[in-house]
Amino acid sequence: MEVSNRYITIKTHVDGAPKESHFELKTAALLLSAESGSNDVIVKNLYVSIDPYQINRMKSQSSSQKAISFSVGITPGEIIDAYGVGKVVASGNPRFEKDDLVVGVITWGEYSVVKEGTILNKLDPMGFPQTYHLGVLGFSGLSAYGGFFEVCKPKKGEKVFVSAASGSVGNLDGQYAKLFGCYVVGCAGSKQKVELLKEKLGFDDAFNYKEETDLKSALKRYFPNGIDIYFDNVGAEMQEAAVANMNAFGRVAVCGVISEYTDAGKRAAPEMLDVVYKRITIRGFLAADFMNVFADFISTTSDHLRTGNMQAVEDITPGLENIPSAFIGLFRGDNIGKKIVKIADE
Question: What are the residue boundaries of the Enoyl reductase (ER) domain, all occurrences included (predicted)?
Answer without folding.
Answer: 16-341
